[in-house]
Fold this protein.
Amino acid sequence: MTDSTFQRHVVYPQTIEYDVVNANNLFQPQNPALLSAGKTRNSRRFVVVDHNVEKHYSTEIQNYFEYHQVDAKIFTFPGGEENKTIEYYLAIVRELDSFPIHRRDEPIIAIGGGVLTDVTAFVASTYRRGVPHIKVPTTLMGYVDASIGIKTGVNFNGNKNRLGSFQAPQKVLLDKSFLRTLPQRHILNGVCEIIKLAVIKDAELFHMLEMYGQQSVESHFQNDEGGRILDRAIAGMLEELQPNLFEEELARKVDFGHTFSYGLETDHEADLFHGEAVLLDIILSVVIAKSRNLLTEEDTGRIFELIHKLGISLDIALLEPELLWQSLEERTYHRNGLQRVPMPHGIGTCVFINDINANEIEENIKLLEEWMVVKHGNA
Ligand SMILES: NC(=O)c1ccc[n+]([C@@H]2O[C@H](COP(=O)([O-])OP(=O)(O)OC[C@H]3O[C@@H](n4cnc5c(N)ncnc54)[C@H](O)[C@@H]3O)[C@@H](O)[C@H]2O)c1
């Protein structure tokens, strides 16, 4: 008998690279952007398209692939959080299996909101242990947040994004003209994530929102100032994501608004969008920050005034202390045992705190209710 002393340390360095680029008029046949990754001639593409996008662009999409002689299979996906399921994940995998694609040079193309890009990217990351994909966001939430990072996932067992992966796209193609047809409530839903970035890390972006936010919302960001707000928000988001793509560092500024919102959106999936839950979390966090003297009365007022000016209405009755405390506890597990809650310290800068207790949540909900009555005459 020989003693086995075999030991080998395996290292495989991998560089993650992908492009996030403006690409207007994506379905114009002469525009090569959609086929700029992978091979073109005599090739195939599996394309997942949001049903509300398909309504507006089905002919253009068909014509685009015909023009390039690419055999495309279009899978129409109904957006909405209720469809971010393992069942839809499997439905996409089944369709994909009936339309074989090359493993390396025929990327899956995902065209839709955050739900669609999260589910489709999860398919891409697991199908044959990973095939390439391209993302084309068509909602504001997707444009400034969901599509530009590398997180994929589906909801499972009553939990948001419980199954998922980190998988970089080959490209993210940004065409803000998709936002023209997006319902107003979904525009505001995306604006909540822009407010998040502005408050926690970018005072200049906050100022731009104060100056041009209202007109940008009204024009669905088709105005020049709206375009500049979007570019700055994406640049800021990528600045945070790039050095921490796999979230080894768990204290993340971009988690501002994503502590109490977790419980809110899980419990109120039918009537609260992701961004709306995030903004409810933000306003409570702002009041906590004010109580801890991290924010002045003036800065607190500016934040509430901006939200009011942009026309975002919030149902603060949804803020139940016990639900928010449970959400904080869940996020503490997610953040490896420490709360790591980002809090604004003045507009545009941030600290992380680890000692929020249930009483503090309850007391600050009461203060928030008083603040809403004083400032806007409603609670
Ligand atoms: N992966 C990430 O890092 C990340 C980050 C933020 C949010 N998310 C996820 O994003 C999801 C929310 O994304 P969402 O708000 O885009 O939701 P969504 O994908 O459900 O889209 C919202 C609605 O807009 C419709 N729609 C899409 N594009 C349209 C267009 N151009 N015109 C008209 N209607 C259109 C859809 O059909 C849907 O009804 C959540 O599941 C959230 O967890 C992921």
